[in-house]
Design a protein that fits this description.
Blueprint lengths: L2 E3 L2 E3 L3 E2 L13 E2 L2 E2 L8 E5 L2 E10 L6 E10 L14 E2 L1 E2 L12 E5 L2 E5 L11 E5 L11 E2 L13 E5 L2 E5 L9 E4 L4
Parallel strand pairs: 5-9
Antiparallel strand pairs: 1-2, 3-4, 6-7, 7-8, 8-10, 11-12, 12-13, 13-14, 15-16, 16-17
């Protein structure tokens, strides 16, 4: 999905079925839906049958000279096809709200109906913030973003892995390779 091919940013989305044994064989399918602006180093996740992408670098290959702060999404059908009507073509839906400070190499996770982004890099600045927004159970859109006032990563990092489980969000590693595993509780409200 998207990515960098040498010095060319891509906007395609590819998918494949997974066999009962876990094996994947044969050719991948290229979706008729695309990412609206070609990019690499973005966050991606799936929640409640909807594919989401966040931010990313849109120019500068390895130096990330231009970054995005949008959220794009599309429903995933049973066949793996992506898009609200599963038959049309064109770009993913661009969400009406954006997170603060455009960036690539960010971490992204979804838990309990909220989307979270952490860290990242805009080509000059690495971030240690945590932002979150509610996901609509009606149409999958993402609400207004809030920057956590009292919770930041221990270090400003990019390229960290982020996942969530059992009410915790985990940020692992990062650019310098010395960052510890970090966690914080996610409150029920």
């Amino acid at each position: 999905m998207g990515g960098l091919n040498g010095s060319t940013f891509e906007n395609d989305i590819q998918y494949h079925t997974i066999g009962a044994s876990g094996a994947i064989s044969g050719a991948w399918t290229t979706s008729v839906r695309t990412i609206s602006t070609a990019r690499a180093y973005f966050g991606a996740t799936v929640y409640s049958g909807v594919l989401y992408i966040a931010g990313g670098c849109t120019a500068g290959a390895l130096t990330c000279t231009r970054t995005a702060n949008d959220i794009q999404y599309g429903t995933i059908g049973l066949s793996g096809a992506i898009g609200s009507d599963l038959t049309g073509s064109g770009a993913l839906t661009v969400n009406g709200t954006s997170f603060t400070n455009a960036r690539g190499q960010l971490g992204m996770a979804v838990v309990n109906g909220y989307m979270y982004i952490t860290g990242g890099w805009n080509g000059t600045t690495r971030y240690n913030d945590l932002q979150f927004a509610a996901i609509s159970s009606t149409n999958g859109s993402v609400g207004t973003w809030t920057t956590s006032a009292d919770t930041t990563l221990l270090n400003a990092v990019s390229s960290q892995a982020v996942t969530a489980s059992n009410g915790f969000i985990y940020a692992l590693g990062g650019y310098d390779g010395t960052n510890p595993i970090q966690q914080c509780s996610i409150s029920a409200d």
